[in-house]
User: Fold this.
Amino acid sequence: MAHLTEETIKKLMETAVDMLQFSYIPYSNYAVGAALLTRSGKIYTGCNVENAALTPSNCAERTAFFKAVSEGEKEFAAIAIVGGRQRVAEEGCTPCGVCRQVMQEFCDPETFEIYLGTGPDHYYMQTLKDLLPGGFEKSRVLG
Ligand code: THU
Assistant:
């Protein structure tokens, strides 16, 4: 997919904000929503899903990736991520290290775009390479 239009970016941000209502967050009360865009233009959504045993908790970004990959998708263009307490998007919500590494499994670090911010009227973009310099490359394992 060529460069994303402003309309597409706003739609992604809006979709990520919409997902905050579904976050299952009885332990942290910190909601995260994600909207993942495939190269063919389809959007997969995700929210964080916590667990009383804590470690089984899943981040919003990985929820979106695993939903998409489990339905046969493997080519991704961009993801929008928002998060905050009381289900209100706040400045400063960035993907955790584990989610960045999951992105690296399926995305080209140079071109995969990560949109952060608080909503369709306030966002900025960083590539995966910006956020995960020196990420573990699958070519090391695959040869
Ligand atoms: N969380 C995400 O969903 N994505 C991130 O990248 C950072 C953290 C979630 C995990 C947990 O449910 C809550 O935010 C507080 O850490």
Summary: The first strand starts at residue 30 and ends at 38. The CA atoms of residues 105 and 139 lie 10 Å apart.
